Amino acid sequence: MIKVAKFGGSSVSNCNQLRKIKAIVEADNDRKIIVTSALGKDDQFQAKITDLLFLLYAHLEYGIDYSYLLKQISERYLQIKRELQLTYDIEAEMKELQKILNKDIPKDFLVSRGEYFTARLLAEFLGFTFVDATKLVILNYDGSVNYEATTTKLQDTMKQFDHIVVPGFYAVTPDDKIRLFSRGGSDLTGSILAKAIEADLYENWTDVNGIYAADPKIVFNPKRIEKITYNELREMSYRGANVLHQESVIPLEKLEIPIRIKNTNDPQDSGTLISKSFEESDDLITGIAGQTNFTSFNITKSSSKPITMVLKDVLNLFIRYKLNIEHIPTGIDSFSVITKTDSIKEMYFDIINEIRQIDGVIDLSLEDDISLLAIVGRNMSHIPGVAGKIFSTLGRNKINIKIIAQASTEISIIIGVSNKDYEAAVTVLYEEFY
Ligand code: ASP
Fold first, then answer.
1. How far apart are CA 318 and CA 312, in angstroms?
2. pTM (2 decimals)?
């Protein structure tokens, strides 16, 4: 059996955490491929190493003195080396890095050092072999993963070594350059390696007991979700539940490799299991997720123009501006296009002007401060009355619904409310369903 175990930044933030990892890894010989993030925050250090490295790069770019940052970064690694009595010559590697610290250093290379140094120290501490991500996670020119090459490399590696530690968050391009994934991307490294080796399980170790049925910052002590399907998780992550990188399930879906979210600080807890499907459960819904700050472009069209024509022109405009569309509720002579407010900040007035000029548009109004909530659950599709329950709950609590949408898969119902009602809406819905 092979398990890929990925440990997030908070799991590797100091010696104490590394000791917990050692105990976890030693408790199960199947945990053969360990992926690590860079050192995260802890009580003593309020910054993630990755953030500091991005900041260091910005200092180099603008020619600002960066010595205080470098000191802060290296001190954290050196402290771990000292306390755990490791021998890896991180001082020499840091010196080499320092020699090439100038504005021409590739940003991705510099930032990847966070994961690289962490993996070096962790490998020695665990007594496992360090294998760099540049030797394993291979990209195509277009940035997609070259699974053929990655699989061959990983299989060859596992023939030589029983247990390995791999830095997460970066991969190598065909022309040998380091490329970072998006933030939180060590989760992706874990998924990619789990797929390449056809792992039995991908464990994602973090600092919470799994995925919660609602945001714990809003709902007090929400229920931990025991089991969730890939699709439900994608809905929840897309809508703001961010325990796992949104794209992590994609590589695993086809081979149906399950993911288990586990808490490094509470390893006995069973966490959340993510898989393709599960036997029926009694829960009507699986979870509630949501995000604030969306803008709705409310467009009225002339009754003589077919809606498809006007909609096509408006959508082309959004494509040209590379904007994500969250929803498009439509009526007979009107429709709305909903997008993240942040994403339109720069081109707000340009878009308004251009929409107004589209043939057939007779009116445009904008509405900001919208929150979108997703009520997610695989069981909703065959149980009538869920929507009714949502509406009556919100109605009873005097929360006005601005948008209602349900995809044909019936795996989620999306509700738009005003930002000011967002937290109340999540709370009353949670109370109603649990
Ligand atoms: N260290 C990177 C970040 O902070 C990647 C990761 O932790 O997954 O985004």
1. 10
2. 0.90
